[in-house]
Specification:
This protein is α+β, with helices and mostly antiparallel strands. The chain has six helices and eleven strands. The chain is globular.
Length: about 250
Amino acid sequence: MGLDGGSIPSRTDVLRRSSWKVSNMNEAGVRRSTRGAQFQPNFVMKESLTTEETNQLKVAKTSVCALSNQPLADNIVCCGLGYLYNKDTVIEYITGLGMFENNKQKYDEFSHLVSLRSVRSVKFQKNPNFDPTKASADNTDAPCRFNCSVSGLPFNGHYDFVVLPCGHAFADRAIKNVKSNTCCTCEQKFEKNEVIPLFPTGEVYQARKKIVDQEAAEFKAKKEKKRKHEPTTTTDEVKQKEKKTSS
């Protein structure tokens, strides 16, 4: 049932379909896909989606955690690549616990997540007209969960959104129209290079990837350097500490 040309695919069908398009591209500018939220960098989609399925995908990707494929909770974060996550899931990934225990290497698309500094808290404005009982990828006309506090545009994948350093999210066109380097909500100033576009594609994605990969490499190098310079505890030192503790 679903995806056979004779029925409307459910949200699960769209998310797990092997040809699910994600909003990043490979270096050739071809969209890549994922199976069950596990990104596969080398898998290039070879079949096109219908307009209906594309709309369902846009709604789905703005409502689920990129790592776990679970619905976004209240504690939402984004990485420098513009992916959205549940913060608890990111913590599990970094520590290699939970669903990532013993299989973290399968999620190499997210290797840039090396610490909580790799993500930024996201503060969306909640849509008062949102009805969770009607929310699904199938019902693309239903009011979405979040919208832009300036323009009123819905965060449903049809409009570009950005996240400022303070965490507040707005429609990209609203930020451009305001023409200010101050957040419209908290009035915190920001620089253009501090703004993270959500779900970027093409050249923007490639530029963002270079930045996050470099930051991750620098973090790992510093961590390794610190580890090498940490004094090692010998067996005799351990025995002496245990003897002092017991005495």
